[in-house]
Design brief:
By secondary structure, the chain is mostly beta strands. Helices cover 5% and strands 36% of the residues. The protein has three helices and 35 strands. It has helices spanning 75-79, 177-185, 316-326, and strands at 11-14, 20-24, 29-33, 39-44, 53-58, 65-69, 88-92, 100-105, 127-132, 141-146, 159-165, 170-176, 198-201, 208-211, 216-218, 225-227, 237-238, 244-247, 251-256, 263-264, 271-273, 276-281, 293-295, 301-306, 344-349, 355-357, 361-362, 367-372, 378-382, 385-386, 395-408, 425-426, 434-447, 465-466, 472-473. A hairpin with a 2-residue loop joins β21 and β22 (276-281). The longest helix is centred in the last third of the chain and has 11 residues, at 316-326.
Length: 477
């Protein structure tokens, strides 16, 4: 690439003069630009393909430049120097004289093989690092987040703080927040260090639940933390009365957390399960749709489940699978119509567990989130690309009327005549084709990142939030 160009940039920072520093790992350099985008300088990082700079940080106190080099889990990194990786921290002088001052080995496990699990192969970054120039003393602190572990070892999911030691050319440990969390929480290996963390707030108390494994509960006013253990799983949502809802692949259970107890609140129209009084049974789903769950201000439970590809040749197979997973639950098969694609079911229950909408978004594909406002309007978060939006790896939020249809041009039961208007969405959501959303009130595209939009696989990498004022909070790429 040319002297002013970039090849898969991975990090950016600025200095006090507004200059922009970009990590350009596959050109083994740091690129510097002025605020208008004019290229000013290239700073080569030694080591070639085995120490590619992926994080660049400018010391705002002294002006020095730091580059972190470690493995980033993607196909390009796997192909280049896969068995010779060396995790290092490079220390350069300031912009005017960016000579290499020192190199420090990073306290990262052997990266000669992948040795990590979690994070998608195409988009995962299991490590983070930065410089704290305001630490006391003459050298900055290094903060690192080691969100991975070699196979067979426990993952460390909290920051580690190190002090740069120029004499020994080492990074000396200052503090391990992982150890602090274990001390404060009294947590065993099964209580801390799990991946897939999420955040859920209990509106009646303000307590913040860090979910994924036994939830860590933070009281914001005091900062105190504790672990609350549920009979199974972690709360997926709280309703406005503070009741906790725990959703897994085949059911929803509800709990009252008042006092120090964790008491099940059964659903009137639910079904008994071993260890439960009455739960809402779900169609068997996969982890990929577990985020499609919420409770409305009126207590309506909105939940999505992945059912698999709609099959017109052997439609009873899905019903048989439901019987096998749920036992006595009633089998259900989605009604077919021309153009019905998708692979998910969106169902709405009232606060008693009675079905309100059995198939609320007919033909919908994978969903990253769902919500119902006080008037019954649905909000669907999908990785399907909004038609006309330039980036086909982004998703969209759709406000949708219950019981509307999504029609696909590559459905297994094809449409005799395609709609005359331009499609509303393309790709994603388990489909390669285009779709028309009959029942949509509005679309908002360009959100999140759906790295699998060009295949039938699906790894959610974004989510949205909603509140009782019908406001949507969505991350844009």
């Amino acid at each position: 690439d040319g002297p002013a160009q970039l090849r898969s940039p991975t990090s950016v920072d600025t200095d006090a003069q507004g200059r922009v520093y970009v990590a350009d790992p596959f050109n083994e350099r740091i690129q510097v630009y002025d605020p208008s985008g004019r290229h000013l300088k290239s700073i080569p990082v030694p080591g070639g393909e085995v120490s590619r700079p992926v994080d660049v940080v400018v010391d705002q106190r002294r002006g020095d430049i730091y580059a972190f080099a470690y493995y980033v889990d993607c196909h390009a990194f796997r192909k280049a120097g896969a068995h010779q990786r060396k995790a290092k921290l490079f220390h350069f002088g300031p912009f005017e004289r960016p000579d290499l001052k020192a190199e420090y080995p990073l306290p990262i496990a052997d990266q000669s093989g992948r040795g990590v699990y979690g994070g998608d192969h195409w988009q995962g970054r299991e490590l983070r690092a930065t410089i704290d120039p305001w630490a006391p003393g003459d050298t900055p602190y290094v903060w690192m987040y080691l969100g991975f572990a070699p196979r067979g070892q426990r993952s460390i999911l909290t920051p580690m703080v190190y002090r740069i030691n120029p004499e020994k050319k080492t990074l000396d440990l200052v503090k391990s927040f992982d150890e602090q969390c274990r001390k404060d929480l009294g947590a065993e290996d099964d209580g801390w260090g799990w991946g897939g963390r999420g955040l859920v707030c209990q509106p009646t108390t303000g307590d913040l639940y860090v979910t994924g494994g036994p939830p860590v509960v933070i009281t914001p006013d005091t900062g105190k933390v504790r672990i609350v253990r549920f009979p199974s799983g972690s709360p997926s949502y709280f309703d406005r009365e503070g009741l906790a809802y725990v959703r897994d692949a085949v059911k929803i259970a509800r709990y009252d957390l008042s006092g120090n107890s964790c008491r099940e609140v059964p659903f009137d129209y639910g079904e008994e399960r071993p260890g439960y009084i009455s739960v809402v049974p779900l169609l068997p789903s996969s982890l990929h749709c577990m985020g499609a769950f919420s409770v409305s201000i009126h207590g309506h439970v909105v939940v999505g489940a992945v059912t698999g590809r709609v099959d017109v040749s052997n439609a009873d197979s899905a019903a048989q699978r439901i019987r096998e997973v749920l036992g006595d639950a009633k089998p259900w098969r989605p009604p077919l119509f021309e153009g019905r694609g998708g692979n998910s079911i969106l169902r709405v229950y009232d606060k008693h567990g009675k079905v309100v909408h059995e198939d609320a978004a007919k033909g919908v594909g994978y969903m990253h989130g769902v919500f119902m406002d006080e008037r019954g309007g649905l909000y669907l978060v999908t990785e399907a690309q909004r038609a006309g939006y330039f980036d086909d790896l982004t998703g969209m939020v759709v406000k949708f009327r219950p019981n509307g249809k999504i029609l696909w041009d590559n459905a297994v039961l094809p449409m005799t005549t395609l709609p005359s208007r331009t499609p509303d969405a393309h790709k994603g959501a388990g489909h390669q084709g285009s779709s028309w959303w009959e029942g949509a009130e509005w679309f908002y595209g360009g959100i999140g990142y759906g790295g699998k939009n060009n295949s039938t696989c699906h790894c959610p990498a974004f989510s949205c939030a909603f509140d009782y004022f019908a406001r949507t909070f969505a991350p844009e790429t």
